[in-house]
Structure prediction request, 238 residues.
Amino acid sequence: MADEKQVKPRGSCLGKLVVLIALLGVAGLGAAVYFIVTPQDLTDIKGRTSGLTAPPKAPDLAAVLKKSIEGNYPISLSEEQINLYLQQTLAAKQGGLLGEFVTMKGVRVRLEEGYAEVIMERSVMDQPLTLSMYLKIDQYIDVQGRTKGALVRGGDPYFPNDPRLEHLIRGGRFGRLEVPQGFLLLVLPAFEKLAGVYQNELHLGFEEMSRITFAEGKLVLDPRADGGDLSPGVNGTY
Prediction:
């Protein structure tokens, strides 16, 4: 009897597609981890000193804000002034189980047109890491008819021209990887703890002011009920 030829089954297209998708998933995960552990570039931030030279003394922001409210005039705070104030007033220390291996190096603020980015700079076993959160201002009219501004988490939508996807908001960055707003829940306790340290300044700057504007390199605050003139540098540039 003649030997029957054994035909080897060929791999199906579906099986190859599954393998390809799995490989792409692994590669994507590896790339995401790489960008997460790679700290973002902070050299463009004004007021971030190296420690080699004595930095200029920052203004007392709480006192500046209080004078603005009492005098009823707008002020403009630069990115440099805010970061110098954070550097000279924040005694940051990492707690918890990882406290022995994690060092808080500082908090920075980058001011862009329409939003701010608050960045935590840490060192894990001498490896620098950064986490950041985007913040925007929600202007509204309260029940008494006064203009008010509320600080809200998140930046611009990923797809601003598609109403079906307008809920997908840019939240911040883990290292160099930009993440959606929902991922901020993983780091929210750390940012809430930071907000508690500056509760007085946040109250004066974002609850007592009528109009708040994030602009390139500056924060403009106006306590006047009618909003007044928000031209940069008017009456209260510090």
